[in-house]
Amino acid sequence: MTTNRRDGLRIRTLTAGICVKPASIGQDVQRAGHLIVDLKKRLVSLGVEVQTTRLTTQPAAQIAGISTAAALVELATELETVCLGNSIEWCCIGPHMPQSADANWIMSGVFDVVAATRNTFVSIMTTTKERRVDMSQIGLAAQAMKLISKSTAEGFGNFRFAAISCCPPHIPFFPAGYHIGKQPGLSIGLEYIDDVLKVVQKSKETPYELKSRVVAYITEIVRPIQRVALGLCKEHDFRFMGFDTSLAPFPTPDRSIGTLVEELGVRRFGEPGTMFVTAFLSDCARSIPVRRCGFCGVFYPVLEDSIISKRNNEGFVSVNGLLSFSSVCGVGLDLIPVSGDVTHEQLMNTLWKVAKLSEDYRKPLVARLLPIPEKSVGDITMFDFPYCVNTRIMDL
């Protein structure tokens, strides 16, 4: 396992999951921090770049002693501080679940946590444990998006909030992540689009032959990482939940999922052929023979991908198109900029579409919509954030 062999693959996130207790929050987080620091050191020594470190908790209403918005905010601010002191950059309070607690304080708590913190994520689950759409949850999520938009600079607080549907525990990517179970766990999110690009650019094979080559190439890289993770999790008494093998982009063309889609034969992302390529790439991600968790699909975050944002500016990307890709294992509507005057009903309608698609296909989906104050459809966002690419405000 040489450093040169690792030039493309990166670990997007090492995500620890714990059931946090307010009385022992320092000890709980420290234990997770020890594992993450040890694992990161080991991976870096093997030539693997680790981009972020994260921590998730159980759903908010399951945290002992938390029954008011003020208590949730106090916990979140302490958790964020303790995480940063233990080499964990981002944290995520588990979602508000349907019928899990009084909606009024949870609603206020979600809003207040985003306003009071800088690196803490929250979410609302819009489907029941039977995987049915819950309209009351959709209403709460739409309300939260509007409130967060109005109270944070350029509405960017919604970067740390999402409506999630049929999402299981132990997803390493935020804001969808949460933990269930007494034993702490570890999940890993990958970033390997440029590795796949290398294979595709050198190949003139059929899709089926290309899939085998891509899967073999990524498997050869990931399996040694899995052995290291399994060993350290056993040593620290954590359960290794697996890899989310989703194709997640970074805001440069060489690490863009849009670039990869077009390299596979689509003239411009969003045009005919994008659906087929989405299905093909999802099949590749789900065929990597390692322990898997999370979405294991394809991320199309409009604000986080340079080529998708460019095609959006050119008029080739639409919300309905992105929704259709979710039926073949896209992961939903991620980082979608919308107008600041979008109505509560428009947001609810879009969130319902995502949740209904999730219900019908029995698959995890996310809706992370960013209403931008004082911006209208067609305007360009003006975010100053290293993980974002500015693009055109989209029409719901």
Give a written overview of the molecule.
With 396 residues, the protein is of the alpha/beta class. The chain is built from eleven helices and nine strands. Strands 7-6-1-2-3-4-5-9-8 form a nine-stranded mixed beta sheet. It is globular.
Report, as a whole number of angstroms, the end-to-end distance. 47 Å
Number of strands: 9
Helical residues, percent:
40-55%
Report strand %: 15-25%
Q: How are helices and strands ordered from N to C?
A: EHEHEHEHEEHHEHHHHEHE
Rg over C-alpha atoms, rounded to the nearest angstrom:
20 Å
Strand order in the sheet with the most strands = 7-6-1-2-3-4-5-9-8
How is the biggest beta sheet arranged? 9 strands, mixed
Mean pLDDT: 93
What is this structure's SSE topology?
Layout: E1 10-17, H1 25-45, E2 49-59, H2 69-85, E3 90-94, H3 103-116, E4 120-125, H4 135-151, E5 161-165, E6 185-191, H5 193-202, H6 207-236, E7 239-244, H7 257-263, H8 274-285, H9 306-314, H10 319-326, E8 332-339, H11 344-361, E9 365-372
Parallel strand pairs: 1-2, 2-3, 3-4, 4-5, 6-7, 8-9
Antiparallel strand pairs: 1-6, 5-9
Helix pairs in contact: 1-2, 1-6, 2-3, 3-4, 4-11, 5-6, 5-7, 6-8
